[in-house]
Input
Amino acid sequence: MDVDRSRTGSFGFNTASEEEIKSAAVADVYFHRAMQVLRAEGKEQTPVHAEVVLKSSELEKWYVLAGLDEVAHLLEDTEIEAYALPEGTICRPQEPVLTLSGPYEAFGEHETAILGFLCQASGVATGAARCRLAAGERRLISFGARRMHPAIGPMIERAAYLGGCDGVAETLGAERLGIQPVGTLPHALVLILGSTEKATRAFDRVVEEEVPRTILIDTFDDEKFGALIAAEAIPESIFAVRLDTPSDRRGNFKSLMREVRWELDRAGFSHVKIFASGGINTVDILELNPLCDAYGVGGAIAAAPMIDFSLDIVEVDGEPRAKRGKWSGRKRLLELKDRSHMILPAEAEPSAGAKDLLQPLDQLYASPPDVSSLRERVLEQLATGDFDL
Output
């Protein structure tokens, strides 16, 4: 398709380049104006200590920290001394998750980007962790990349996987994670080939054997009949059937799924699993768990509420100083013997056995972290903690 860009005003995709992010072109304008004033006053090199914190919130009593990999990349070759919690740490409000010390000029205009990296990635990871808690041991796949701008698809899939998903659907995101992408087949294939049976047989014939045969069954057919059509078309290789029925057409989804399970079992296909997708959230997961074996979750993960961090100066030129509503001065975040967290002034002596959680950011990212290990860390915390949905 030919496009006259002089008429549309379009210059390509509406995304910022790495160079634009690193040069602070994406900053809110008041940071640029603040630096303009500070330079005029000769104060741009004022040493400050700032911290990133989630304010106390009834909505987010806990969250999974993510996005620090991009913050570390942004702050490379700056004069900033940065300390942070490791990604995948489950945190509570008021806990400092990132601290920045150095001349304000070195990071002031990067505040917009730093918060953007952390707020969105942590929101996605937390959405995934909530779905993980709801699903228990059942398979959980991120289907959300198509719900967001493709330029951030790999970020979404990384945060979703880190937060507890078993797999991701987007090819590039999976490639960067070093895992195989997970998917079934789209309605488009069934529509073009003309029937569930034809699409099932063609998929089984063409796609590599190691790909599980999870067949979408509700393009044309009532779900219980579609399930039998798929199972009877490839009885030796079928792995699961996927129900993607829109909410306005499915009525009681649990009842519909119970009917599918009954018909599959009655026909000798009790080994065929049931995979649910289509606007699934934690409430749906909890309701469907008795019948469902796996979930593909889109918006509830990819568009999960962001974690509303703020980045605030708490010390200026060695003097504790903070705006109203903030705790002034440098702080230590400690893990106690019972694995709970405690915030203390930097000069305070911790109790015996307490461990400092904030670590040098450049050491955390001296080499690319193994996201699978970060994911396992999240799962371990979820298994041993008390986290409300």
